[in-house]
Amino acid sequence: MIDMTRFAGQKCGTLLNKLLDDSISEHLGIKLVTPLTVVLVFLLLLSVPVAGYRLLFGIGAASNLNDSWPWGLWIGFDVLGGVAMAAGAFMIAGAVYILNLKKYKCIARAAILNAFFGYLLAAISITLDVGRSFVIWHPLVMWQVNSVMFIVALHLVLYLSTLATESSPMVLEKIGWERGLNAVHRIMVGAVMFGVALSLLHQSSLGANYLIVPGKLSPLWYNKQLPYMFLVSALMMGFSMVSFETILTSKVFKHDVPHDVLVGLSKGILYTGTFYFFFKMYELLTGPGLALVFDDNLEGMMWLIEMAVGVVLPVFLLALPSVRRDKEKMFAADILVVFGVLFNRLNVSIFGVARYATRAGGDYFPSIMEFTLTIGMIAFAVLGFKLCAKYLPLFPDHQESAHPPGTASAAAPRAPE
């Protein structure tokens, strides 16, 4: 028994040493201890006691939510926004595995990892936002197939598991477990196809949640096509987030990405953004009418900001060949789209219901604890991504340095997880 314990301890120590091997990060010059890392750790540690306080004393003690405002920052930004930002994973994975567009292989792992953290934060936010957080596991065993919220919960769990599977080859390659790596590769195409279907359903089902509030949500956003609008805007956000993090990480972690990859992502933003614009305009003109936008009200101003900054301006910019040739200009357009879609989610979840909730006697502004937890979760995602970039073969340069030519892992075909 003692020998078995010693053997297991030695094995775990060996795996840990492999995971923490700095040879990969040294190849790309990634430093762990930086001022940014210190700030991220501080923000993360600051959010931990706040999360504990919320779990111990309830959502009412930690937030400014009430009966008129049951959903606030955690749902509008962390869940609706976080899931939309994760949409790039299923598009890039589907493009590489299903459509065989191999030029996007170099960004697939980072896109999937980014989505994994996005969905993980959404899961944490839902857990904190549910009144009885300690029974969050109930939907897994107490099915209610007629509830759209049950569908959302099921999609979240299944797709988070799928993203973990798609990200696992990085860990398996690092620790050198060839058998496990080959097993994952055999099921990867099926996992990607399953993930694409799940993500399409999940992005639209988040919009379907708001079909139950026709008298509360402003007609500027409420219509029967809301699930499809959530899906199309998530596609636009997905292209933008992948382009954003690709350009950013190429600078920070010093790895090269072919420019035609960024051009392809920009064209994806251009096409989906153009379709989304005409979709929104059609629903506006055949629904509440253009006059409602200019009716000197909060909703109209928010709608204009969302569309002008997040849709019209970046689509116009990316339609110019000179912008698509300039990485910095594409980066600026990506930021505009990310802002616009996040603003749309806040419009639907907060600003669009403000008039009704105020008339019902409610008022809402996020508490300090709500902001602290949101910022802490963002810090967790950024720090986690940096740790993965440092210790795992996340980028093409990583993969080459981790498995030099002639090794078993280099010789074996690898899918772009």
Describe the structure.
The chain crosses the membrane at residues 28-51, 71-99, 111-128, 140-162, 183-201, 228-249, 261-282, 302-323, 335-358, 364-385. It is found in: Cell membrane. Belongs to the NrfD family. One of its GO terms (biological process) is anaerobic respiration. This is Ni/Fe-hydrogenase cytochrome b subunit. The chain is mostly helical and 417 residues long. The chain has a single domain (35-391), classed as Formate dehydrogenase/DMSO reductase domain (Formate dehydrogenase/DMSO reductase fold, Up-down Bundle), CATH 1.20.1630. 73% of the residues lie in helices and 0% in strands. It has helices at 2-19, 23-28, 35-57, 59-62, 73-85, 88-97, 105-129, 138-141, 148-175, 178-208, 226-252, 259-285, 298-318, 321-324, 327-349, 354-359, 368-391, 396-402, 408-411. Residues 398-417 have low confidence and may be disordered.
